[in-house]
Amino acid sequence: MARIGLVLGAGGAVGEGFHAGVLRAISEVTGFDPRSAEIVVGTSAGSVVAASLRAGLGAADIFARATGRPLTASGERLFDRLPSAEGALGRTSGERRLGPSSPELLGRFLTRPQSFKAAKAITALLPEGRRDVAHWFANFDLAFPAGSWPAQPLWICAVSLEEGRRVVFGQDEPPDERPAVARAVQASCAIPAIFKPVVIQGRRYVDGGIHSPTNADLLAGMALDAVIVSSPMSMSGPVAKGRGGRLAGVTRYPAGRALRRELALLAAQDVPVLTFEPNGELVSLMGLQAMDFSRRAPVAEQTLAMVRRSLEDAAGEVGRVLAGG
């Protein structure tokens, strides 16, 4: 069996919808079950989908949850054990702390200017968020009891707020020191200035998308036969006409640039990659509010149609990639 790596990028509620459409289309057209991936890398919204896959939820049920359709019998059995964040941005708690969320990181940039990264500097300057989304992911404790992790590799990306470095839960620490899957996912989803940083073993963590919306470079050198990348925050093809399209193109440019660098690392090692990004039409539907839950279902539907067409047009090539040929 081919060793396939799966990368699920950041993107909020609409990103979850995009992942749902991508995974459903891949499963339908090629027969590949994303639950069988050798390694799954999840960032922010992608970490929620990644953990759901490792909990046993299949592509059809991930799509059903995103679109409000009935689940399969096996999905129904898992449903109550998996989290669902329907339309709320979490609970507001405590007074807003004014001032930078990480003076430590700002100081690091001053003493080591060569380490400066704009996204991380902005994160450090922003105040801490006040919304707590721990209840969104609490049910992962049922899927992965007593702090256990799945047997197959699950890598969840977050950023250390004090140091500004990427942390990959499930990879970076010894198995007996891993946080609960629920806490790792919560940390990966902690959008700066909106959600509270997540404290794990005394350190604060925020959204892994601050380092990279995809983090596909983690799979370089992993001796995989192929990699599938679902990247909701970048885009393929031309932007839609009008001011909204141009704005979307500008906001998605950094994610696309980061993705191209990561794909180049994989290409240098002759690893075949199937990359899925929203086209201009889909970007318009996704809008500029990543946490707009009302768009998740239509995004999932349109993504399914878009990816299904692209896979059917290149069925032979895709089949060879997924077979490791």
How much of the sequence is in beta strands? Answer: 5-15%
- How do the SSEs run, as a string of H and E? EHEHHHEHHEHHEEHEEEHEHHH
Q: Care to count the β-strands?
A: 10
Rg over C-alpha atoms, rounded to the nearest angstrom = 19 Å
- State the secondary-structure class: alpha/beta
Mean pLDDT over the residues: 86
Number of helical segments with 4 or more residues:
13
Low-pLDDT parts are none
Shape category = globular
First-residue to last-residue Cα separation = 11 Å
- Amount of helix: 40-55%
Largest sheet: 8 strands, mixed
Protein model, in words:
Strands 1, 2, 5, 6, 7, 8, 9 and 10 form an 8-stranded mixed sheet that branches. This protein is α/β, with parallel strands linked by helices and 325 residues long. It is globular and about 55 Å long. It has helices at 12-30, 45-54, 59-67, 73-79, 103-111, 118-125, 134-137, 140-143, 181-188, 243-268, 280-286, 296-313, 315-322, and strands at residues 4-8, 39-43, 91-92, 131-132, 154-160, 166-169, 198-200, 203-207, 226-230, 273-276. The longest helix is centred in the last third of the chain and has 26 residues, at 243-268. 42% of the residues lie in helices and 13% in strands. Strand 7 (198-200) and strand 8 form a beta hairpin.
